[in-house]
Amino acid sequence: xxxxxxxxxxHLSATAVYAVIxxxxxxxxxxxxxxxxxxISDFYQGHIMNQSRLKRAIKQAIEEASEMANMRVHSVxxxxxxxxxxxxxxxxxxxxxxxxxxxxxxxxxxGQAKQRDMPKDHYLMQHVQxxxxxxxxxxxxxxxxxxxADTLTVMYHLMMLPVRSRQNLEELFRPDNLKVDHVRVDHxxxxxxxxxxYSLLPEDRELGVCFVDIGYSSTSVCxxxxxxxxxxxxIAHGAHEVTMDISADLGLTMLEAEQLKKRHGTVDVKNVDAxxxxxxxxxxxxxxxxxxxxxxxxxLHELASIIEARYVEIYTEIFSQLEEANLTDxxxxxxxxSGGGSNMRGLTQFSKRLLNMPVSLTNQHPAISASNHFEDxxxxxxxxxxxxxxxxxxxxxxLLYSQSDQFRYSERSSVEALKHSQxxxxxxxxxxxxxxxxx
Length: 439
Description:
Blueprint: E1 5-12, E2 16-26, E3 29-39, E4 43-44, E5 47-48, H1 51-69, E6 75-80, E7 86-95, H2 103-117, E8 122-134, E9 151-162, H3 163-171, E10 184-190, H4 191-199, H5 202-207, E11 209-214, E12 219-225, E13 228-235, H6 239-250, H7 254-264, E14 277-281, E15 295-299, H8 300-324, E16 335-338, H9 347-355, E17 359-361, E18 368-370, H10 377-387, H11 393-402, H12 405-411, H13 415-438
Parallel strand pairs: 1-6, 3-18, 6-10, 11-16, 16-17
Antiparallel strand pairs: 1-2, 2-3, 4-5, 7-9, 8-9, 11-12, 12-13, 14-15
């Protein structure tokens, strides 16, 4: 049995930086040792709006989580979304010529896939190995290492971003002061894959499901079929645009529009009486001295129609991409919704009617719990409460993804896997040489 390991996750969203430190006992037992949320709006639709402020927020989140966990942080897993994401299904085919398949062959197959489908100005943010065909066999294997074969074909889902985007993200973790330790980014993960790991059941992935994470500034999508990730996308529309629409159409400030949306908004127009009105108090700071009233009367049916229009646009964009990828007939489990935008009142019923398919929301994952290392019960209870906050689901999902077969098999295609394999071979060779000398 392997000893537990600690993994640190940073999740960048449009509204906050989240830091989570998890103690991985096993895939079914992940204990949260530290976590932090730092509110900030400097990462919008994958773009860094203010590097210095975002850098300070990341530093603060790491410090707060590491203090709670009583450990130093040297490296992190980074999860985020960006409409710049470019993804495709690809493959690499290697001639083995009767030899046993090695890690080098898997790495070379990924190199072929990248050469075929990755633009010169992009980098491979994340890849998922979908399976392996040996020779002309029609059966898809997951772990072919050591199998003797003539040819090897490895199927991949590739997720790519512009090189400049990676450079800008890595700069966020470089210290301004040379005396401060550099925090290394071990892995960059598309946040929908992380959230899906938290939210989806194995039978969802097997039967076919579309996971939709409606965030503040963008909507992330991934599709699984027969247990394999086959599609990812990030759309530049999110819940914030609903607030912007309400503000523009009803002549409200953004704060007033957000409050109105939360208190009286629904996307389910069919269940709103056209004769329903609400009187909303204006924010005094924005009330004109010439105005006769500091209130405005809003028709709730009109409000619902504004909200509905934006969600229809989001779904239209998603299903346009799914139809182009010929996937609409393969999502038998329908849609699983996540993200802050999924909390809109009436969304589940509205989505079922609009899409004519099953729609459900995410639940708490049973593998995530608070660590018992805390010295006082108050901190333990605080962490337990924070774990229930859905804003941390993506970070928790990254911890789960780090232990998944999906990640384990995919990592065998990385250059790091080849280096590790070579180190293992060198150690064994040295051991055999020593054995010969002493015998």
